[in-house]
Amino acid sequence: MDISRSLSKRIPFFSLLFLPLFYAAHAEFNIATIPFNKGYYPLFGDNNVVRSSDDKSVNLVLNQYTGSGFKSSDLYNHGFFSAKIKLPSDYTAGIVVAFYTSNGDIFEKTHDELDFEFLGNIRGKRWRFQTNVYGNGSTSRGREERYYLWFDPSKEFHRYSILWTNSNIIFYIDEVPIREIVRSEAMGGDFPSKPMSLYATIWDASNWATSGGKYKVNYKYSPFVAKFTDLALHGCAVDPIQEVLSTSCSQKDDQLKSADYASITPKQRSTMKKFRQKYMYYSYCYDIIRYPIAQPECVIDPVERRQFKDTGRLDFSARRHRHDKRKGQVSRMRTYEDQDED
């Protein structure tokens, strides 16, 4: 069977262009998982937090009455936080599914946070999501990036992971790194430094999630179900008000930094660069209206820079111009790009 022809029936053309790239970067991490009751508890919407009989999986449900969420039982001083997630299918506009770390319930004005947020979807359009980083309550300096996925996340499970050490932060989808922030002295307290818990939630964000609030949650398609399995927590559980970290935390930090997901190989770095050039459609680093002087951790890539307007949003007209000699591809690419400008 011609695999490219078979896949083309199920995967959009723009994804086929880069499919070999992502498969080449895929090499499963060595990750130990834990049952729900060993590391988590329901956060809200308890009746909508549905655990499997073996306690290895959990579904989060949103209906017309409430959303739902769960939280790690402990706070962690650095860690690797990971789960395989399958997002709700059908019409999911206005729905946010979030997988993130935070300490906002303890440090209300100086909280840290690392986010994956999936921004709802309308059938036939590409799924969008964002990552964000806050440090020491720096909500006025949100470090968000937005992207398209190269697959349909409602069809099967994919692993989403956040690595957080005292020197860097890496966001992964499966084993593909999509973003890295390297700590620098210039960042100061903007680099997350206080113990955080892991959260997962599903909720109604009709006022902003899909195309800036243009499309709302339609509860005739409810209940909406986000499925989580193969949950992983690797880090040092700590008391958030403990001033001196224990020796065991230093040892666990060393173990964390030696894991296969703690560093990006040259092949992975090449994959990450191509992912960002192809699928990132907003970056705070290129938003010179919002930040006339780029934030200190930003590494300005001249190739990336040419793709963005001064607002940090992808310049679709420039992309179309670059592809105007490839008529067959451009006609298909425009179909997706016109949708995404809504």
UniProtKB/TrEMBL annotation:
UniProt xrefs under SUPFAM superfamilies: Concanavalin A-like lectins/glucanases (SSF49899)
Statement: the UniProt record of this protein carries the keyword tRNA-binding: no
Residues the record marks as active site: E113, E117
Pfam families found in the cross-reference section: Glyco_hydro_16, XET_C
Family in the record: Belongs to the glycosyl hydrolase 16 family.
PANTHER family in alphabetical order: XYLOGLUCAN ENDOTRANSGLUCOSYLASE/HYDROLASE PROTEIN 8-RELATED (PTHR31062)
Protein name: Xyloglucan endotransglucosylase/hydrolase
